[in-house]
Specification:
This protein has eleven helices and seven strands. It is α/β, with parallel strands linked by helices. The protein starts with a helix and ends in a 14-residue tail after the last strand.
Amino acid sequence: MQTEELLKELVRQKYSEIALQDKATNQSSCCGAGGCSTEIYNIMSDDYHDLTGYNPDADLGLGCGLPTEFAKIKPGHTVVDLGSGAGNDCFVARAETGAEGKVIGIDFTSAMIEKARHNAEKLGYNNVEFREGDIENMPLGAATADVIISNCVLNLVPNKPNVFKEIFRVLKPGGHFSISDVVLVGELPDALRKDAEMYAGCVAGAIQKDTYLEFIAGCGFVNLTLQKEKAIQIPDDILIKYLNEQELLHFKSGNSGIFSVTVYAEKPAKGNCSENTGCC
């Protein structure tokens, strides 16, 4: 059984390599885990091109949604992006906050932080900063953020309840988050789950959708809303390597699968959380 620290180190090593890959490689391999499919298309990521603030140099194709599109960011807001990578979502958020707002990206991979800072410098943004740190123990004070966003990151974290506790702590009373992530619905075939761990590292840490939502509600958040949900279609040339014809038909016609969700919730205006949750 791998320890949480070992899992984190494996993720850190993988994303240090991803920071040096191009977008096309990352998009065709789900979270940059490796190019196993000949069906080259965007397996998980959504199209940013119509969003103001989008910067192609900062887009590594690692997302599974568009959390900034749903995040209700206003001018002057302080926005925190968890697992900020090369800075893509931070720069889109900055277009919403304006020059009077502030955007802070947190990532625990040095190579990603370096890439993001380089991108921010090229863009001349002095209100976007990137801090190296663990999102289970954010390098931020309590009640710092009006809005927290994240894109296809929490699924990589072994202890998800700890992240939601930190989100609660860092949000201002009345603040909110919009997070895109990968979840599971139903039981995946064992062979497919093993393949997901190999070819789509972002799926390896995914948990059941109901459990994910329970973690959020149990931490004291209110107005929990599922803003978007879409099925992640795994290419047939991957599926047929691990499932026989009958298993393939059953899987594709069933209700189980891998889904991208965008979830919204608010910290109560008084800043109170449920007793014994550890969120305060």
